[in-house]
Design goal:
The chain has 424 residues and is an alpha/beta fold. The strands form 5 sheets. The chain has a 10-stranded mixed sheet with strand order 9-7-5-2-10-1-11-15-19-20, sandwiched between helices. Strands 14, 16, 17 and 18 form a 4-stranded mixed sheet that branches. Strands 3-4 form a two-stranded antiparallel sheet. It has 3 domains: 161 residues, Adenylosuccinate Synthetase, subunit A, domain 1 (Adenylosuccinate Synthetase, Chain A, domain 1, 3-Layer(aba) Sandwich); 91 residues, Adenylosuccinate Synthetase, subunit A, domain 2 (Orthogonal Bundle), CATH 1.10.300; 158 residues, Adenylosuccinate Synthetase, subunit A, domain 3 (Adenylosuccinate Synthetase, Chain A, domain 3). It is built from 13 helices and 20 strands. Helix 3 runs parallel beside helix 5. Bound molecules: guanosine-5'-diphosphate, 6-O-phosphoryl inosine monophosphate and magnesium ion. The site of 6-O-phosphoryl inosine monophosphate (IMO) has 24 residues, from helix 4.
Amino acid sequence: MSNTILIGAQWGDEGKGKIIDVLTERADWVVRAQGGNNAGHTVEVGNERFVLHLVPSGILHEGKRCVIGNGVVLDPAGLVEEIRGLEARGFPAAGRLFVSDRAHLVLPYHRSLDARGEALKSASGKIGTTLRGIGPAYGDKMARTGLRTGDLLDPAFPDLLRERIDAHNRTLAALGGEPLDPAAVIAGVEAAIPTLAPLVCDTLPLLHEAAARGEEILFEGAQGVMLDIDLGTYPYVTSSNAVSGGACTGSGFPPNRIDRVVGVLKAYTTRVGEGPFPTELSDADGEALRAAGREFGATTGRPRRCGWFDAVVARHAAMSCGVDGWALTKMDVLDGFDRIKLCVAYELDGLRIDTFPANIRAAARCKPVYEEMPGWKTPLGAIRTFDALPPAAQAYLRRIETLTGVPVRILSLGPRRDQTFDLP
Ligand code: GDP
Ligand code: IMO
Ligand code: MG
């Protein structure tokens, strides 16, 4: 038995969906435990491309069961749309997708407040959220004023929702926003209930009974460590715990039942939205990374900011998540570079530091200290063993292991399932 937490080790979009898809082969259950439909996880199967937002990527493997855990914030209309889209492509949710009755709802007023909040911030204060209502929904959860998925099944739900709409309309009006029409909001949410009601249950005993039978559980992290509400580049973060601990609090599956943590690590760095990014490139190399890596957001389509590999960030992820092994992705994107840089430390106000500063203004002043390595100038996409990698690519991978103190266990050299192999 092996219960695995998979996390994103940078600012999201490391290739978690693809690695989950590969690891699902050996698992029985795939669980999302935090975030919401701000996530966009891409899986390529044959000539087909799927982007999953709320439904665990394991749904694409027949017979595997999927859970949306209590730590997720769930947009009912968004989830129904995703379920319908998957059904139309031959992946029905019935009997395979279970949604925690404790998961909080993202409601239309959360999306309005997200947009209004961003619009009111100064240019330098904007977070660049996905506008999916994630922050306001987690805000309600923490303020103990949220509605949960289980409430959808309560006869009192329309009244509870109306009360919340009225309260949020007052806030929206105070912020200069447009109040929402309560009847339209209630009708919209109620339209999702027939599809969602059969999936909603207490997922806690489900996972514990599965584990007792020796079935394997895979936790699909969303976002990345640097977007974690506690350990990321606050306030330029999302509103949930993307570190490995979030998988436990977000599912009710305890830490002492977890066997390993896999960190998904891109061979370079990207970020969508605002906030400090020490190795960001605003030159031709950055453009080349964006073009070769097709770095455009899977949820919002925004161009991703691109930069060199940052070992300070990777070490931060290794520490805060207890990463046992990396799944290193997208090394093939570096195929065309003559020289490749790795950031090994930062220079902050004239001093060398090798950990990520908590203070956001200090983080913005950090200058990367680079090492340079020769590129391999060979396409890697068809390679399936470590020994077949060109020596320069082997050296780059080994250097990442040394700089982070964590071995690479899985190597991904393209978006497809078959472009992946284990390292001894
Ligand atoms: P996630 O949010 O972590 O699941 O990542 P995204 O799906 O948002 O972005 C990762 C992108 O890289 C997707 O378009 C994947 O199809 C693609 N991808 C994943 N692994 C690899 C890889 O090893 N090489 C290349 N070239 N693309 C990859
Ligand atoms: P996956 O799971 C990349 C970023 C947004 C923004 C910040 C806050 O696909 O890796 P939010 O809407 O969550 O309040 O936005 O977090 N962000 C992501 N960036 N990948 C993601 O998910 C992200 N989810 C949120 O761009 O900077
Ligand atoms: Mg993504």
